[in-house]
Amino acid sequence: MGIKDFKLTRKNLRKLIVIPLALLAIALFFIGSSYVQEGQFLKRGIDLEGGVQITVHHSQKTDLDLVKSKISEELGTTDLDIVTTTNPATRQQETIIVSVGGEIAEEKISTAIESALGITLSPQTYSIRVLGPALASSFWNQAKWAFMFAFLFMAGVVAFYFRKPLPTVAILVSTTYDLLIIFGFMALTGMHLSLATIAAVLMIIGYSVDTNILLTNKILRERDGDLFERINRGLKTGLTMSASTISVLLALFLVGGAYSIVLRQISTILLVGLLADIPNTWLLNANILTWHRE
Amino acid sequence: MVLLIFLVIAVLAIPSFKPDGVAVAYVAPDSQFFETLQPGSMINSINGVTITTLDEYAAEFSKLKIGENVTLDIEGIQYKTPVEPNPRNQEMGYIGINVMTTKSTKLEQGLDLQGGARVVLRPVPANESAIVDDELIDTTTSVLMARMNAYGLKNVVIRKIQDVNGLTYVEVEMAGEGSENVVDIVKSVGLFELKVLNETIITGDSIVPPIGEPQRDSRSGLWQIAFAINNDGARTLRESYVEMAPQTPTVCTTDEDCEPSYACSRGAAAGSCLPKIEMFLDDALQYSAPPAQALFETWKYGEESKNLLVQTNKFEDAQKVKIVLEAGRLPKDVKELRVFSQDYVDSKLGAGFVRGAIYAGLAAIIAVFLVVLIRYRKMKVVLPIIFVDVAELVIIIGFAAMIKWSIDLPAIAGMIAVLGTAVDQQIVITDQILSGEYEQSYNLKKSVKTAFKIVIIAASTTIAAMIPLAYPGFTGLYALRGFAIVTILGVLIGLLITRPAFARMIEILLGE
Questions:
Q1: DSSP B258
Q2: Which helix (H) or strand (E) holds B73?
Q3: Is the dihedral angle over the CA atoms B493, B409, A268, A32 positive or is it negative?
Q4: Cβ contact (<8 Å) for B357 and A256?
Q5: How far apart are CA B447 and CA A172, in angstroms?
Q6: Who among B419, B467, B480 is closest to A199 (CB)?
Q7: Band (B206; pLDDT cuts 50, 70, 90)
Q8: Torsion angles phi and psi, residue A184, rounded to 5
Q9: Range among A197-201, A221-225, B481-485 rated most confident
Q10: Pairing relation of β-strands A92-101 and B21-27?
Q11: In CATH, which of 3.30.70.260, 3.30.1380.10, 1.10.275.10, 3.40.50.300 is domain A51-131?
Q12: How far is B93 from B84, CA to CA, in rounded Å?
């Protein structure tokens, strides 16, 4: 990678803070423009808004855009999403998943799908998921509460361990940073919030802290050797940690994600979060802590 | 060494010591095997062809010809029996047993992986302003339970769930058996009415279970369900009908000769126009026909009939009538069951997920292996890491098997994510021990202790973040509970078992 010989020094650390800040700016931009365009920060999928999701076993290559416009026309709605899953081993398409938000009846949607794809839906060839809006909004509420509690509990654990305000605040800032980058990514790619993405976001709240704790320990708790020598050793450990988790998630994304949307969503969010965590921990958080120390 | 003990336990917990194959799941009452076969018996072969998968069973089964003999080898005993026509489809053979696969593992698979249906509903009271209280929910639940039992479904879970507003819902989950029909049976209110000339004469209260199995009438091709009513019902029916029927019925030869609501009842001589007896289930007309002339005569003379018959066109309708009548109707105050959410996963999709999960797991382990290899380059370090990781996954799975936790997709994602944290922590420990080279006052124990402090904190934050998901009050997030629990479990197992074991191993291997 060439980064093998890279070391953080007092000088370049200060300059490199540009990277995480730039990423943050980009993320905020996308979140903001999503708000302007759609009226909400992030789009909610049918898990949280209600709607119908039909998964059809269909291996013929299809022009998704054409299918999408046909179905959208027939149902009279644009709240429509189509994705596919593939078997990575055979590279063959396995299913087509059509998600329609709102309260359109399943029968209308199945008929639209049948005519757009030119097939008939019979019991072994498709799966259907219907969620009413009343229940969905109750789920959304719960998701928001869960998110808040997770953040609070995590903050509590960190505060309990470090007992000093600065490292705690720094870590909380760090986690918020990761979350903002993830949301920015979702806004950029139009990814919907779903139960799976919420689970992944909560996981990031727990995960991203790991490298930050390592860094904070190196800077504030350990005493031997030069500060930056310690930081660099920590960097090596931290990068290996991140690399291993990222490779696990890549495996999950490439292999599992091909089969299932749930796995795809969880692994994407975790990947983005962990990738963002690297500059976050070692460039942003490091700056905050070393600055404090001086 | 604690690790090894747990590992062994886990490895033993997973297999169920039954071979992979096909076993009897349910024996229909009208089957020749009703008294002789037990659910759970392994089906070894049909007509000499060994059966190990459902596909093989289906393939052999479709070759069976009606009227011919079929030989089944079940648990080593041979059974020979003629093949009858299938009530659902005259072209196909029928021996009256449902089959299921047996897995060689005791792992319970959730809906995502097995296929099945899940419905969330709430009773809507007839009186709009009435409160739906716990008692109503409980009665509804027990009626639904009775229906599912009548249908013969083994894998049905009926749960009460509550949302943050305090509203209670009934969730019916049927894993391994998914069909729109079953959902219909669940949704049905079960109101049975027998009407003559638009007046309700008797209702489901008069029905005496059991209800007969649907039988096909070979002449009309219709499916018949016979059932009995109690004395009061029989009396009311006879009295009301005789009172409402005309003294001298119009003579007829076809239904068109009669007024609407009347039909031509044929007898030995000319037919008579008699009022139709109409039977409704949930306000849907199931049966409409006049009584046979001879029967009407016996009624006129004071004899009561306790046996009634409903006829339907399709087998599915007949089955639904039977089940709903038998299990009874929902509490009187319930107008309908409103469906709030409905999931139907076909088993092919589920099998695809299982495959995906297994491949992803393997890919993940390979990925870890590569990364660790590049970083440390020493097999002494790499092998323990991999070994401990795999062991940890096995222990988690074994635990899940022991507590019969259903594994679903998010749970699998959780396991793979736990693998990620596990590797993270092992790297922290390894590096801490290795860094002993740099420090003047190197103390192995102290290094490990520091490493563990970091590991504990990392584990606690992950657990803290996952706790809200596991909280039972968040019913909507029920789907994610598997993810949360697997993650928390994995982290704890890592913290208490595998991480210390790993530290010991590394200490021994490196710390000389």
A1: S
A2: strand B69-74
A3: negative
A4: yes
A5: 27
A6: B480
A7: confident
A8: -60, -45
A9: A197-201
A10: unpaired
A11: 3.30.70.260
A12: 6
Tell me how far apart the alpha carbons of residues B189 and B335 are, in angstroms, rounded to a whole number. Answer: 7
**Main-chain phi, psi angles of B39, to 5 degrees:** -60, 140
Give the up-direction half-sphere exposure of residue B202: CA atoms within 13 A in the CB hemisphere: 22
| Topology of the domain covering A3-44+135-293 | Multidrug efflux transporter AcrB transmembrane fold (1.20.1640)
Q: What share of chain B is helix, strand, coil (3-state, %, to 5)?
A: 45, 25, 30
Residues of A in contact with B169 (CB under 8 A): 135
The dihedral formed by the CA atoms of B342, B344, B350 and B356, expressed in degrees to the nearest 10: -50
> Cβ distance B453 to A210 under 8 Å?
no
pLDDT at res. A15: 79
Is residue A92 within 8 angstroms of chain B, CB to CB?
no
The fold of B116-189+340-345 is: Alpha-Beta Plaits (3.30.70)
- B497: which DSSP letter? I
Of A94-98, B107-111, B307-311, the range with the highest mean pLDDT is: A94-98
- pLDDT surpasses 50 at B17: no
Q: How many residues does chain A have?
A: 294
In this predicted model, what pLDDT tens digit does every residue of B215-235 receive, in sequence order?
Answer: 777 777 777 878 788 888 888
Q: Which of B366, B368, B465 sits opposite A153 (nearest CB)?
A: B465
Asked whether the beta carbons of residue B465 and residue A210 sit closer than 8 angstroms, the reply is no
Long-range contacts of B488-492 (CB under 8 A, 24+ apart): B488/B462, B488/B463, B489/B396, B489/B399, B490/B392, B490/B396, B490/B414, B490/B415, B490/B418, B490/B421, B490/B422, B491/B418, B491/B421, B491/B459, B491/B462, B491/B463, B492/B459, B492/B463
Q: Is A251 on the interface with B (CB under 8 A)?
A: yes
Q: What is the mean pLDDT of chain B?
A: 72
What is residue A139's DSSP assignment? H
* Interface contact B468-A153, CB threshold 8 A: yes
Q: List every span in chain B annotated with CATH 3.30.70.3400.
A: 116-189+340-345
Of A128, A202, A244, the CB nearest to B344: A128
- Cβ atoms of B25 and B408 within 8 Å: the answer is no
How far is B510 from B436, CA to CA, in rounded Å?
10
Q: Which two tokens stand for residue B353?
A: 């997920």
Contact of B215 with B224, CB cutoff 8 Å: yes
Correct CATH for B17-102 of 2.30.42.10, 3.40.50.300, 3.30.70.100, 3.90.70.10: 2.30.42.10
Distance from CA of A278 to the nearest CA of B (A): 14
The ipTM, to two decimals, is: 0.77
Pick the residue from chain A with its C-alpha nearest to B440.
A224
CA distance B377 to chain A (A): 13
Query: What is each CA distance from B421 to B20, B25, B303, B459, B475, in whole angstroms?
Result: 34, 41, 79, 8, 27
What is the pLDDT averaged over residues B193-220?
77
Place of tokens 């976001």: A201
In the block, residue with structure tokens 């279970």: B209
Across the range B456-479, mean pLDDT stands at 74
User: What does each C-alpha distance from B304 to A206, A251, B230, B280, B310 come to in angstroms?
Assistant: 73, 73, 10, 21, 18
User: With an 8 Å Cβ cutoff, is A143 touching chain B?
Assistant: yes
The tens digit of pLDDT for each residue in B80-98 reads 777 766 554 454 556 666 6
The 10s digit of each residue's pLDDT in A82-91 is: 887 776 666 7
Q: pLDDT band for position B35 (50/70/90)?
A: low
E strand or H helix at B100:
strand B97-102
Using DSSP, state whether B350 is helix, strand or coil.
helix
